[in-house]
Amino acid sequence: MDRQNLTLLTDLYELTMMQGYYRNETHNRKVVFDMFFRTNPFGGGYAVMAGVAQLIEYIRELNFSREDIRYLETLGCFDADFLDYLHNFRFTGDIYAIPEGTIIFPREPIVKVIAPIMEAQLVETAILNIINHQSLIATKAARVCYAAGGGVMEFGLRRAQGPDAGTYGARAAIIGGCDATSNVLCGELFDVPVTGTHAHSWIMSFPDEYSAFKEFAKLYPQSCILLVDTYDTLESGVPNAIRVFQEMKEEGIKSKKYGIRLDSGDLAYLSKEARRMLDEAGFPDAIISASNDLDEHIILSIKQQGARIDSWGVGTNLITAKDNPAFGGVYKMSAIMGEDGKFIPKIKLSENTEKVTNPGDKKIYRVYEKKDHKIKADLICLAEESFTEERPLVLFDPAAPWKRTRMEPGEYTLRELLVPVFQNGACVYTSPPVMDIRTYCLEEQDTMWPETRRLSNPHQIYVDLSRKLYDMKLRLLDELSQVDAGEDAVS
After folding, report:
1. According to CATH, what is the number of the domain 196-292?
2. Is the dihedral of CA 446, 448, 449, 452 positive or negative?
3. 3-class secondary-structure state, position 484
4. In CATH, what is the architecture of 12-137+325-480?
5. Model confidence pLDDT, tens digit, residues 189-224
6. Domain boundaries in the chain?
7. Residues 428, 421: contact at Cβ < 8 Å?
């Protein structure tokens, strides 16, 4: 897919604000922006970070082509000197991000941009677009794969909201834990496994079901999964599949992967009956695959009914995140550099308390219980702060600061989450292959207790503030309470 220049993948107001900064000669003033989200999607206990590799591509290619500038000129919003300035525009700042595949939680910065305000403003829309989408699909995939216990194939391309959503969504689904995708372009671009069987039209193009199965087995003996519900699953489809498998066996063909796919009907009942029929016919190793508008809740329900399904093809509900179609990540300024070269913390107020932001230039420590290496909490602190495992650590809930936990040396380990991706405009991070990110993501999911991973009413991991950050936030809130600045005040 051609991703050469996405510079105009932005909202118009980013560009009009850029011109304003340019006109006021504040365009080189450094700022800090945080991307974060406020609520876990799907009513879950966590989310999965994804999209950093595409963020890197976007920033690397960020420049205004002659065609871009000619188009902006036609809008009538921009002066000639500003458009001339854009000819040599490049990103020169720093970007920090949490690596792809990492478990993430609400209210913590998952991307941090430190750059001249004009640059930091321009990249807002694209960063949100890229990270929001892929993190949403990766999170959905992690939930689906957890419910299934593995063996999930992403089959959603034809239902995705366009080629990009289908292809980058499939990439994110692999990161979240899917074993393979039906999307061949995704396989080519990101070197991930692709898989597929055949459609009902294959069966219908032959005089009868048996002939269709026999021809498919002849073409693909080492990967022979037969779709058995075109006419009658138990009376026709499974018996004809067994007949073909028997003929393959008699001919000495030892298939690496063979079995049936169910795509309609009562999947729990049909899979149990099909399993019995296959076993009685001497094919206990035949795979039973299922599809048909599946999601994590349906899969869990089918399994609770004793279904005998080995692999799951999940399409529409995964690739569209149908029950929660937006991730909700936001991008807010948290600091601006003063004349003395030091960052001045900024905070956004709102009538909704959950929309009040955390000020300052920040970093995140993940706190693990050392005994089990499970996540205890995340600690947001100022970038200047440093914590060590050799000292006691006191955690407290910023919404209820009287709730405190004291952890002694030897009881916990620390890990800093944000890593440098760009420094002074140069990329300093190499994104791993997607299948390596998938392995890492599966390991990350194991650092959560089952209570956090459960699909409904999960235990929420605490995201705490350091005392220094908490006190700064209270001070700014107190100062702003003295100012009547309307619905949203910034200080």
Report:
1. 3.20.20.70
2. negative
3. coil
4. Alpha-Beta Barrel (3.20)
5. 999 999 999 999 999 999 999 999 999 999 999 999
6. 12-137+325-480, 196-292
7. yes
